[in-house]
Amino acid sequence: MRTEIEKLLIDAIEEQNLYLDEPVDLSMGNDAALYSDVGNLDSLSLITIIADIEKHILTHFSVQLRLANERDLNISNSPFSTLGSMLNYIDSKLSATLQLECDVA
């Protein structure tokens, strides 16, 4: 599952890179800066990526997730600061939601 999420995330970032003056450098792997003081994403780019990921998760996993709220968009402690932190955040949210659905069923 984590590999699929990583591919969805990288695809969403690469798609958004087409519209950025300075694209995200994904060659840094999990340390690639996204939404931070040194990252290339502004809040609109981040929201676009998040919306794309939410749509793909619904399609691939049949789960509707809400990945961001106002607290998460605070740049100083955002779970979206690097590729690795965003991947971990999405993976944990999806895993928790899938586990909850299994517990209910």
Automatic annotation (TrEMBL):
<feature type="domain" description="Carrier">
    <location>
        <begin position="3"/>
        <end position="94"/>
    </location>
</feature>
<dbReference type="InterPro" id="IPR036736">
    <property type="entry name" value="ACP-like_sf"/>
</dbReference>
<dbReference type="InterPro" id="IPR009081">
    <property type="entry name" value="PP-bd_ACP"/>
</dbReference>
<protein>
    <recommendedName>
        <fullName>Carrier domain-containing protein</fullName>
    </recommendedName>
</protein>
